[in-house]
Design brief:
Helix content: 40-55%
Largest sheet: 10 strands, mixed
Number of helices: 27
Distance between the termini: 45 Å
Number of strands: 31
Oligomer: single chain
Shape: globular
Strand order of the largest sheet: 13-14-15-12-11-16-17-31-25-24
Bound molecules: NADPH dihydro-nicotinamide-adenine-dinucleotide phosphate
């Protein structure tokens, strides 16, 4: 055959040859440990009594025996972390920064070993572990080495929490470790960390590398094992914070297990993220985006774009391109450098994914899958093909559940408004990806999506400087960036008693002037009668107050419904909200004498005047902050800007403190509404009358109906209703008794709402330092990171 035809032949059959990465260095490292590992506690290995195998998902071979930690081991790890804390604190920001920097350098020196070990243990393509997981993990340590130095400047009056517990899943083993450990250490905490039982190996190699990097013994402790170890961490009484990534079900368990413990909690949970393709999108780019979004890491990604929402008129063209691209995906041995997809993590996950797809098929969905060929041999293989599911009902489980595999479900829409509606029609709210050539359209849609991260014309982009995390049942709290750091810090100052005021109960009470008035609830901008038809007269000592309504469960539900409907408030400009708050301050001042008259019999004249003045000051402080507590722009590596937007949380339930009836109420309401939230507030049970008085101020201050709702009644009865309500996004109660705190946090697990439940010192309310606006405004907002790539 002539040479030219040879070349033609070669060109027409052009295919990848095998390009294997050697497993030898990783296997040699396992051999140095005789394929067996103990626990890493106090800077050394501790043998365990029972073990389980870690398997290579691509061939089922045993890689090593891993220790199953016991509850006592977790306790020892906590002790080691506690013992390490004083020296770690004494090391100061400079010393801690150097250690984090050394970790980054050490990981970099061993990056290929880590990548190969990750691929052996998890099954992800070496291309991904080598080019994404490990470099990003390293970047996290570099980035946070810098934060350790900048902490005092950027977060004055904050301090480390102490010893923190961290639990991660198997999909990004080392990367999740870095997301957790780097910020914890940068803030000066010490750590007890648990990897997932399927993928402990890179965490164990990391432990060993910590010695090389000079991490003081006990600062990082690694305990391996199953969910029981996670449970022991979540329940450990001396841990100050739990950071968890994993399934929503386990996240909910951890919320319940930590209820009332005072532990800080961040939950990064599941998702069912929309990938929205508008009619004017660059379809070839969108197809590559889909590949990165749902077939990256075999779709075992919490923020995978598992729901493709495509414009009706574009769907056929996009799906034709997508099917052609699917056929080109290379599936096989993940250590081969030209492979796109490896196996799923294990056979259990395979069965779960396959179960979803087969049930969808039985319902009548059309399933398109790539061929697996010889990879599907044997009953125990873990390879699952890239899968496209069309002709599905919106109510189908495959549309609503997190499948956590390479399965893409397709739906169509006609208008951007319908796309937003479909996108938000999920209990999750982790991420979304938008594809359009119109920046105007994407920036209009991005804020309307209920998601913690929005990618515009890109997908699955991450960086240490940019926070990541969700809303709704995708959890709360952020990892990465400034907002990730605050999760590992607590307030430094014990509340100053600068006003040195006695508690209300200690002040001799005088009888109020008898006024025969019956107050009402304030719901949806109107004064309403309580559903139950009961009113009560609060009594304090020998003082009897005018009757106030006894709100019930139904009143709370009505108030939440009114708040839900008041969506215009979050679209109101920050300038507009500030004006309303200024007006509220002005009118509160104008009604000062009347309000002081109400407060005086409760607390005495001096304190009543102080309370009034502090309330006006507080309203002014939050009016001033309303248009200044803004987001930021991050510039991570690459041609991309990331807008970190402070968005309102939604509907916030608030239980006002008993002892500062007016000041407590405005201190909670003002930051919430300043940031665009709507509020259902239960006023002080000891002086509910103040709410009736202040309603007259509210009614004249231009607050739109439904933004503020006041339901007087028994806090022990009303607070649990708010905590359990699925349409309440967050619950604040800063003077909760321990039993109530436990009850409220447990109930909040129902829809995984954020909680801010504390036991503030009684004198703190009048202290402007304690009520420093940013502290409150952070609780009133959640950060949405919007990624906008650029370039020609
Ligand atoms: P889990 O949420 O069960 O596990 C995550 C981590 O939590 C693991 O380290 C696990 O330990 C630990 N854990 C398990 N039970 C408890 C408990 N009661 N208290 C404290 N910690 C616990 O995820 P799975 O690995 O079991 O995966 C199940 C499903 O969850 C997947 O199919 C997927 O749908 C979803 N998932 C979602 C993730 C996400 O990021 N959104 C990540 C992983 C899974 P152990 O390793 O022993 O299981």
């Amino acid at each position: 055959m002539p040479a030219s035809s040879d070349i033609r032949d070669i060109m027409s059959t052009l295919d990848y040859g095998p390009s294997p990465e050697s497993a030898t260095p990783a296997l040699d490292w396992l051999a140095t440990h005789e394929q067996g590992f103990g626990l890493w506690i106090g800077g050394q290995w501790r043998d365990g009594s029972s073990h389980f195998d870690s398997l290579n998902p691509s061939n089922g071979q045993r890689l090593a025996a891993i220790t199953q930690a016991q509850t006592g081991d977790v306790d020892q790890a906590v002790q080691a972390a506690e013992a390490a804390l004083p020296a770690w604190t004494a090391l100061g920001p400079g010393g801690r920064s150097r250690v984090l920097y050394a970790i980054a350098r050490t990981l970099q020196r061993h990056s290929r070993l880590l990548a190969v070990l990750e691929t052996l243990d998890n099954g992800k393509a070496i291309r991904e572990s080598r080019d994404i997981d490990i470099p990003l993990a390293i970047r996290h340590f570099y980035h946070h080495a810098g934060w350790a130095l900048r902490l005092a400047t950027e977060f004055p009056k904050h301090r480390a929490l102490g010893v923190v517990g961290q639990i991660v899943p198997w999909n990004f083993p080392l990367l999740m470790l870095a997301w957790k450990i780097a910020p914890a250490l940068a803030c000066g905490n010490t750590v007890v960390f648990k990897p997932a039982e399927q993928t402990s190996l890179t965490a164990l190699l990391f432990a060993e590398l910590c010695t090389e990097a000079g991490v003081p013994p006990g600062v990082i402790n690694i305990v391996t094992g199953d969910g029981a170890v996670g449970q022991a961490i979540a329940q450990h009484p001396r841990l100050r914070k739990i950071a968890f990534t994993g399934s929503t079900e386990v996240g909910r368990e951890i919320r319940k297990a930590t209820a009332g413990s005072g532990k800080k909690l961040s939950l990064e949970l599941g998702g069912k993220s929309p990938f929205i393709v508008f009619a004017d999108a660059d379809l070839d780019a969108a197809v590559e985006g889909i590949v990165d979004s749902i077939w990256f890491n075999q779709g075992q990604v919490c923020c995978a774009g598992s729901r493709l929402l495509v414009h009706e008129g574009t769907a056929e063209r996009l799906l034709a391109k997508l099917r052609a691209r699917m056929a080109l995906l290379r599936i096989g041995d993940p250590l081969d450098k030209s492979i796109d997809m490896g196996p799923l993590i294990d056979r259990t996950q395979w069965q779960r994914v396959s179960g979803y797809v087969e049930r969808a098929r039985a319902e009548g969905a059309v399933i398109t899958q790539a061929e697996l060929g010889a990879l599907a041999a044997g009953d125990n293989h873990c390879y699952y093909p890239p899968t496209l599911v069309t002709s599905v009902e919106t109510s189908s489980e495959i549309v609503s559940d997190e499948v956590f595999g390479p399965v893409l479900v397709v739906q169509t829409f006609r208008t951007p408004a319908e796309a937003v509606e479909l996108a938000n029609h999920t209990r999750f709210g982790l991420a979304a990806s938008l594809w359009s050539e119109s920046i105007g359209l994407t920036l209009d849609v991005a804020p309307k999506l209920k998601a913690g991260v929005v990618w515009i014309n890109t997908a699955n982009a991450f960086d240490a400087a940019c926070g990541f995390g969700g809303v709704k049942e995708s959890g709360f709290g952020r990892e990465g960036g400034r907002e990730g750091l605050i999760e590992y810090l607590g307030p430094d100052a014990t509340p100053a008693t600068q006003h040195d005021m006695p508690a209300a109960s200690e002040v001799p009470l005088r009888t109020p002037d008898a006024i025969d008035r019956t107050a009402k609830l304030y719901v949806g901008g109107a004064q309403t009668r309580p559903d139950g038809g009961y009113s009560v007269r609060a009594e304090t000592g020998d003082t009897t107050w005018p009757a106030t309504p006894l709100g019930n469960r139904k009143d709370i539900r009505n108030a939440v419904e009114a708040a839900r409907k008041a969506t215009g408030w979050e679209r109101q400009s920050a300038h507009g909200r500030a004006q309303v708050l200024y007006y509220l301050a002005e009118n509160t001042q104008a009604h000062a004498e009347r309000l002081i008259a109400t407060l005086t019999p409760f607390a005495g004249d001096a304190r009543a005047r102080l309370e009034l003045q502090c309330s006006v000051d507080r309203l002014l402080a939050f009016a001033a902050a309303a248009d200044k507590f803004e987001g930021r722009v991050h510039q991570p590596p690459g041609n991309v800007v990331v807008m970190a937007l402070n968005e309102p949380v939604g509907v916030i339930g608030q239980i006002a403190p008993d002892d500062w009836p007016l000041l407590g109420m405005v201190s909670l309401l003002a930051p919430a509404i300043a940031m665009g939230n709507r509020v259902v507030l239960v006023p002080s049970q000891r002086l509910p009358w103040i709410a009736a008085d202040w309603v007259q101020v509210l009614e004249t201050s231009d607050i739109p109906a439904g933004v503020v709702n006041l339901v007087t009644g028994q806090r022990d009865e009303l607070a649990p209703v708010l905590a359990a309500h699925a349409d309440v996004d967050s619950l604040w109660c800063l003077d909760a008794a321990p039993e109530l705190a436990t009850q409220l946090e447990r109930l909040s697990a129902i829809n995984l709402k954020r909680t801010w439940i504390d036991r503030a010192d009684n004198s703190a309310w009048a202290d402007a330092d304690w009520a420093e606006p940013d502290h409150f405004l952070r609780q009133a907002t959640q950060v949405k990171n919007v990624w906008v790539p650029y370039g020609v």
